[in-house]
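Sample entry (121 residues):
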Amino acid sequence: MILLTDWKNKMKIERCFIGASTSRFDLSEKFMSKNVHGNTGQDAFHFGIWINPLDFIITTFCEGDWIEKTCNNVCEFVKEVRALREWYLDETEYFGITGDEKLIKMLTDINVNINAEYRRS
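Predicted structure, serialized as tokens:
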């Protein structure tokens, strides 16, 4: 595993390549105990999004490329999740969140729209 760290607006962004499918994350109790799954119109075994409201981390995985953004505070986290949601609504016409109800409530409490939405062009 090669790990690269970028600093964009002082946000920690880590990237690496992992030869696996999304089930590596979805089936990990430790990983899923802190993350909810962001569902898009693009979901497949080679693509996924996970949102961690406990540590303000957003993880994306696409064809082996793993990217983890660690936000510095709740405001930055909300902004990143909202931007992610808007992008996937525009590009894949769907975004929703599924997972542990306590984690979903945390997102709702910090004003992240977790309602599933379809957007047709």
